Structure formats: C-alpha cells, structure tokens
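**Backbone geometry record:**
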Amino acid sequence: MKKIREYPKQEYTMKEDFEVFQAIKKRISVRSYSSNPVEEALRRELETYIANLENGPFGTKPRFKMLDLEPLDKKELKGLGTYGFIKGARLYILGAIKDTPGALEDLGYCMEKIILKATSLGLGTCWLGGTFKRAAFAQKMDLGADELLPAITPVGYPADQTLPSDNLIRLAAKSKKRKPWSELFFGPGGKTPLTENEASPYHDVLEAVRLGPSASNRQPWRIVKDEAGKYHLFLKENKIYNRLMGKIRLQNVDMGIAMCHFAAVAREQNLPGSWILEPDAPAVPGLQYIASWSG
C-alpha cells in the first residue's frame, strides 16, 4: 500500500454554524447568475469563513482568493473566461495549493467547505476544474512557481431563469445522477455491497458522500467498512482522465470533497472520529487507498 504522507491524527470537533447535510442535499451546480451583486454583509461573512478555515486532513492549508470582476476593464474581462460554461458571474473564489503530497485532497476538502457555506447563505456556486482559462486566473491569483491552481468557483445569486445551454451542460454531465450505494460502499474485503441498514449509524454520512460533486460526475470514491467498523476510503482512478492536466489531478480533488462530506456530517451527527492513514488498511484490487476514518 502506497501512503500519501505521514501526518498526526487530527481531531476536528467544531461543528459548522449551518446545517451541513441540508446544504449538501440542496447544493447544485449554478451556471447562470443574476446581475444582482452579493450583499456586503454576506460577502464579509464568507470571507471571514474562508480566513478561519482549518488545514485539510493531510495537513496543508490551501490559499484562497475572492476575485471581484466588477472593477476590471474590458480587456481584463476578455482575458478571463470559462469557455461559455458560466454566464453572468462577477465574483469568483480561486483555490491554490503548493505541489506537495496530499495537497489536492486538502484543496477539495477545504474548497467544498466554502461551497457548502455559500450554499447555506443562499448563494450559487459551480466547481470548475478544466473549463476555465487557467493562465489568466493564475495571474490574478499571483500564483507562485511552486503552486497549482486546480479549481475555481463562481459565487453569486442564481439567475431567475436558466438558459437552454445550462440544461444541455447538465444533461451532458449527468449532473443529477448519482451511482447507487451498491457501486460505492462495500463490506469487509471490498466485494459485497454494504446495505443502508448495515451502515447505521453512518447512513447519512455515506449518503452525503454519495451526493458529492465530482469532475465530470464520475464519482470515483469507494468506501469499505471493515470488521472493526472502520471506514476506508479508496480512489477508483481513471488514469487517462485523471492525468490529462499533469500535476493537477481532479479525481484526487474529488477525494477531498468526499472526505469533507464524510467528516462534516459525522461531526454534525456527533459521530466521533478523524481521517488517518491506517497502516493495516485493506488492499482492494483496482483501487488506490486514500485514508481511513477512525473513531
């Protein structure tokens, strides 16, 4: 088993100040935005939340920047683009990491927390990993030579009416579809599907993972519950897809999203535990071990 890195067990006991599971169920990818600006009070609340974020489970802290396009001139706006995927957004959150082991997962973990917070405030968002002009946004991020810019998200009020192109993109991405439990969660050995009854009291925690957003909605996470009741997280990687952008591996970002949903809902429901690297985690053919949830 290949470890990502050694890190101390971290206890995250603080609950969010919003209903996490409800935000997970409510969140959708918003691609068309209203011209109404985000109120200053909401913007400050979101900025404060970002400033107070903890490190990710692998010990790194991504760097985030809120970029307001409103003051930019036409030339600058023309340079920034999302290839037609996003309409009307004037506010973006950019997420950067240093190129270190586990940092992609930490980016996914922390940025998803921001997205859920924004959802709780009534704001729309949309994960963008491969559909934005990375070099132009990187310049606005003042990206360092040792940093990567894996993802950004627009933030704002959803438009009153969605455009036909939004529905086409949603249909192509199968945005509303999620794999069934039987394809994602397994009992000891990783072969027999874990039933919803067998997952108790972690039913909602696993359902939160199942509902998570992922690049091209590929849902690459797999979870195995062992005989001792520990939950082991694995990546079912599509190597061709995941390595198209070199060091930026979006399916590893997806694993951080899964870890965020698992941990946040576990805390919300008073289930003890944290993400650790388990030396004795089971090996499952065709899957890459990521981390284990230990109480």
The two ends are 22 Å apart (CA to CA). The chain has one domain: 20-294. Residues 1-5 have pLDDT under 50 and may be disordered.
